[in-house]
Design brief:
There is one protein chain. The protein contains 29 helices and 18 strands. It is of the alpha/beta class. It folds into 3 domains: 293 residues, 2-enoyl-CoA Hydratase, Chain A, domain 1, CATH 3.90.226; 181 residues, 3-Layer(aba) Sandwich (Rossmann fold); 214 residues, N-(1-d-carboxylethyl)-l-norvaline Dehydrogenase, domain 2 (Orthogonal Bundle). Helix 17 links the parallel strand 13 and strand 14. Helix 14 runs antiparallel to helix 15 and helix 24 crosses helix 27. The longest helix has 23 residues. It is globular and about 80 Å long. The C terminus is likely disordered.
Length: 737
């Protein structure tokens, strides 16, 4: 029998080697066709008396990344369609669909012949759950092997047996830690936990897997044998009596109760360990079906799984523009940002010229790459040889003529129009006519900068976030005259360096910074109202933000906020900044010299390490303080999320953001907007636009006109619309009126 996605070769010892190698895919993923073929392979190997056992492996450099996004999308589409016909029947069909993978893996486990999973690379989600259902697991001793059940990061949980097999192999505490955080394991760590039987050198992977079968591997899972005991003794032991009652509180401390999928993992493990295995799988299937119906799961899967992949694959790339083979890049400005951009460019294998005013400054920029490489080598994440190769691709120089053969130039000099104008003129005097000029400005509108260019159609914004080597997002900003070629090449470059792009039209602050400063400004308002700073920071984190607004302001730099405010007043007039905000920041910077983390004091104090930062006690003296009992934390949480979401809605109404996927993905990757909501626009859609508008009007009555809903939101509320309905990213995007 032949298969589309698999090859099956049976050797003289009767061991069938099943190799998963999907055509025209860089990574194996689960689709309906793949699962159908796996079931056929199970049946065929069981029926073939010549087959004594099966080794399951991958023909690619990775094992599998888990489920395919089209399969996930089809499941939600099916649920919506069936609910319209018969809600009760829809849930039953979802239950059956949700259990397909789980019971298929159970079929492997009980087929009567030994199966061994040979894990050669990244093994995520359902792929590791398949491996757990095999009777033996061998992993390669390689940095390429990353084993994880990361489903909680997209709002769900390991629903194909993961919550039942992992705690029956590893101790409950390690199992819960792995699944509720989605952490990745090395092959050695997986072995230490009891999740993998052997770790061997990569060239011995298949021989070792076959040897397990030759050595008489029993085709029975431990939990199917009489007398099986859960590691550590199950839920009735003294250790479990300490773990399980405390686990929900610990989880709430970490997640603020915002992630139903994480809590479902605790329930599945606690209930499942008290039941026979097949019954436990049904419990898992029931909870999985419930979680799939939550707003959090739908929104997180759509934004963090589906939309992020679509944008990463070039969903916004203009049609008809040939793919660019970027062979050389120039970076002008060897400061922290420019040096970091040069590093990620070289890490992608692209030669890069790093230019600054003199050789010393350029060399200092390359030294940043040298430090990053040294850190990676020291942590075992990069070989010395790979590090040397990366560094060889970075050429520091003050000589602009070295840009004569680049495909793209990234400008990363000071946020000063005159400085940028001079750089644009120097660069355009030497680069090829076909090259694209990309400015990394974070505050200055691209259209205005492009007025200094002889070729504004080949001028575009590419806004990176700090630290560049860690932040996944890049904003690609279209000036009024930016052409399709500039957009296409910018997206090709961003994809090459493994960042996720969002495309936005030109405006002051673009998308991310507009939202970030609304978040910070709300904290200024709260301080002025007398809300204790610690409540401001904690409320923001309880709302789902990764860091509080005052901490974030320190990271951005308080004096940078001052510069941005002054520039806004100069360009847009005094009404563009609240006087009380300006007064606060002027006092922080000019009177108190509290500029943020960079000078060791801002809204927080930053003592020498290892001491931790702490809120500056003097904050309470800036304004009369309210007693904590008079402050409603839930209202603080609402204010933070609503003010950011309103700003995102304004960018849509103004035509800055035209695709809701980009607002959602950009808000999560750019500044960590409450991931459980799915992003700013999903937050509004998930709540319901009418409910959101009512809440915004209520907040406006108490806390200021900046909470007033926009005309677009009022219109959508009246019409019962959603952002993903009105601005359908898969059809003709309707512009705001």
């Amino acid at each position: 029998m032949t298969y589309t996605n698999f090859t099956v070769e049976t050797d003289a010892d009767g061991i069938a080697l099943v190799t998963w190698d999907m055509p025209e895919k860089s990574m194996n993923v689960f689709t309906v066709e793949v699962m159908d073929e796996i079931e056929k392979i199970i049946d065929a190997t069981v029926a073939d008396e010549a087959v004594k056992g099966v080794v399951f492996t991958s023909g690619k450099s990775s094992f599998s990344g888990g489920a395919d996004l089209t399969m996930i999308k089809s499941m939600f589409s099916m649920l919506a369609e069936e609910k319209a016909k018969d809600p009760q029947s829809a849930v039953q069909k979802l239950f059956d669909a949700a259990g397909r993978m789980s019971w298929l893996w159970r079929k492997i486990e009980t087929n009567g012949k030994p199966w061994v999973s040979a894990i050669n690379g990244t093994c995520m989600g359902g792929a590791f759950e398949l491996s757990l259902a095999c009777h033996g697991r061998v992993a390669a001793n390689s940095k390429a092997v990353k084993i994880a059940l990361p489903e909680v990061k997209v709002g769900i949980f390991p629903g194909a047996g993961g919550t039942q097999r992992v705690p029956r192999l590893a101790n409950a505490q390690d199992a819960l830690q792995m699944m509720t955080t989605g952490q990745s394991l090395t092959s050695q760590r997986a072995k230490a936990m009891g999740l993998v039987h052997q770790v061997v050198e990569p060239d011995q992977l298949i021989p070792a897997a076959k040897q397990m079968i030759k050595d008489g591997l029993k085709p029975v899972a431990p939990w199917d044998e009489k007398g099986f005991r859960v590691p550590g003794g199950g839920v009735w032991t003294p250790a479990a009596a300490q773990l399980f009652p405390a686990a929900p509180a610990i989880l709430r401390r970490e997640t603020a109760g915002n992630y139903p999928g994480a809590l479902a993992i605790l329930k599945c493990v606690y209930e499942g360990l008290q039941l026979p295995f097949d019954t436990a799988l049904k419990v898992e299937q029931r909870y999985f079906t419930q979680i799939l119906q939550t707003t959090e799961a739908f929104s997180m899967i759509r934004s963090l799984f589906v939309s992020m992949q679509e944008l990463g694959k070039g969903a916004r790339r203009p049609a008809g523009v040939p793919k660019t083979d970027i062979r050389k890049v120039g970076v002008v400005g060897a400061g922290f940002m420019g040096a970091s951009i040069a590093y990620v460019t070289a890490a992608a294998g692209i030669p890069v010229v790093l230019i600054d005013r003199d050789q010393e400054a350029a060399d200092k920029g390359k030294a940043h790459s040298e430090k990053l490489v040294s850190d990676q080598v020291g942590k075992g994440r990069m070989t010395k040889e790979d590090g040397e190769k990366l560094l060889s691709l970075v050429t520091p120089t003050p000589d602009y003529s070295t840009l004569s053969d680049v495909d793209l130039v990234v400008e990363a000099v000071f946020e000063d129009r005159a400085v940028k104008k001079a750089v644009i003129e120097q660069v355009e005097a030497v680069i090829p006519e076909t090259a694209i000029f990309a400015s990394n400005t974070s505050t200055l509108p691209i259209t205005g900068l492009a007025e200094n260019s002889r070729r504004p159609e080949q001028f575009i914004g590419v806004h990176f976030f700090s630290p560049v080597e860690k932040m996944m997002l890049t904003e690609v900003i279209l000036g009024e005259k930016s052409g399709d070629k500039a957009l296409a090449m910018a997206l090709d470059f961003v994809g090459k360096i493994k960042k996720t792009p969002i495309v936005v039209n030109d405006t002051r602050g673009f998308f991310v910074n507009r939202c970030v400063f609304r978040y910070i400004n709300e904290a200024y308002d709260m301080l002025a109202e007398g809300v204790p700073a610690v409540m401001i920071e904690n409320a923001a984190k309880m709302a789902g933000m990764p860091v509080g607004p005052l901490s974030l302001n320190d990271e951005v730099a308080v004096d940078l906020s001052q510069k941005i405010m002054k520039a806004s007043i100069a360009d847009l007039g005094p009404n563009s900044v609240k006087p009380e905000h300006m007064a606060l920041i002027d006092k922080m910077v000019d009177v108190l010299d509290r500029r943020g983390r960079k000078n060791g004091q801002g809204f927080y104090d930053y003592p020498p390490k290892p001491a931790k930062k702490s809120l500056w006690p003097g904050l309470k003296d800036l304004y009369p303080q309210k007693p904590a009992s008079e402050v409603d934390v839930n209202v603080l949480k609402q204010r933070f999320l609503v003010t950011i979401a309103l700003e995102a809605a304004r960018t849509v109404e103004e035509g800055i953001v035209t695709d809701p996927r980009e607002a959602d993905v950009g808000s999560i990757l750019g500044f960590g907007f409450a991931p459980y909501t799915g992003g700013t626009l999903s937050y509004i859609d998930g709540m319901g636009v009418k409910i959101f508008v009512d809440l915004a009007e209520k907040l406006a009555a108490h806390y200021g006109d900046h909470f007033k809903p926009t005309p677009l939101l009022k219109e959508m509320a009246a019409n019962g619309e959603t952002f993903y309905g009105r601005f359908d990213p898969y059809g003709d995007v309707e512009k705001a009126a």
